[in-house]
Write a structure and sequence with these properties.
Blueprint: H1 2-20, E1 24-26, H2 29-53, H3 55-60, H4 65-80, E2 84-86, H5 89-110
Antiparallel strand pairs: 1-2
Helix pairs in contact: 1-2, 1-5, 2-4, 4-5
Amino acid sequence: MEFILTILINGVAIWAGSQLLRGVEVTDFSRALIIGLVVALLNATLGSFLDWISTPIRWITLGLFSLVVDAIVLMVADYFLKGLKIKNFWWAVALAIVVGVVNGITHWVFH
């Protein structure tokens, strides 16, 4: 059940990011939910691996390098999925911030 909630929250966050950021385009809300699923799967696999590799860098930057890892995961999702267009790496970082804020707020509210 928690994984489904994660997918829904990621989908809503990505949709919100596409509405707030002019460098991010998502075709429609149903596509945002599919992107949320793919991003959740990529975070569980590729994101975990990149977090493990970048642990010393994340310690030095006090966790800010996690935004870079999240942006890379979003760029990989952009590469493989139709309906998601991120103009460049910095827009991916901005989207990672939006997704992180939405996830943080929902985690705070529901837990």
